[in-house]
Amino acid sequence: MVGNALGRMRARGISALWALAALLATAATPAVAQQATYIGEKACLGCHSQENRHFNDSLHAKLFRLNPRNALEGRVCEACHGPGSLHAKDNEKKELIIGFTRGWGTPVSTQNDSCMACHQGGNRLHWPGSTHAGNQLACADCHNPMERVSLTSSLVKPTINETCQNCHRQQRVEFNKRSHMPLPEGKMSCVDCHNPHGSTTKPLLKAESVNMLCTSCHAEKRGPMLWEHAPVRESCMNCHQPHGSNHEKLLVSARPQLCQQCHSPAIGHPGQFYNASQTAAAGSQLGGAPSPRIVARSCQNCHSQIHGSNHPAGARLQR
Hints:
Elements: H1 2-28, H2 31-35, H3 41-45, H4 49-55, H5 59-66, H6 77-81, H7 85-89, H8 108-116, H9 131-134, H10 139-142, H11 160-165, H12 169-174, E1 179-180, H13 210-215, H14 230-234, E2 244-245, H15 257-260, H16 280-286
Antiparallel strand pairs: 1-2
């Protein structure tokens, strides 16, 4: 008898705990998920006429209104912002609707989930775990689906380059240096080399390595070569800056200093090591001849095939 009574008490206690847990879970669930319902685009336009004037010319407006692929896209405004019945009743509470600005306060994960409901797969396959995702970048930080600012991709700036440089200020400075990739001239864009939605590499490259990316355009440097230059095979960035440099050909430093970072007299070069007394100015003042390695292409006056040679006599990359 006593054992049965204790069992009933334990059962009631467990039931009470489950009831309390269910009550707390209900209280923690957002009101939007529980009560909000879809009210239709016309109800939204009753208040948001100014937003609609911008939205009319956007790609999303044309797709959602003229040719929706499913019932969700047919809801137009509520396809992205969620059901709006509670927001229509109390527009002061920002948590009752999904907003796509930093000031609105909607969590970045919620914003991105709304976009990913339609935009998933493809070049966004590696978005989870990417550098941009890890830094809590929202889709709306780069894209503006509510207004036609750019010709493609619904960007927040008129071009891809301007959109990227909005955050990447250091790269914007580098592209203004005297030797740079032809990005400011409009001959290429950031997405020719990078996938902003994620890739298998940390810099979001569109190839498995720097060299594979560079040789996708510079095919003549790809090789394999009969005589290879070790730093070239390791990484193009050993000698070149990827965005811009104050030295010719995007070099990390001027020649012959660049070559001398690896090649010193100890490895048996037949000529004298370059120094300050062998400059053109010092040579003319002292009546001597400047080092031939400061003329024209410096070391490349003789070692012309610095990216590698296929000539049987090209062991020193001279032909």
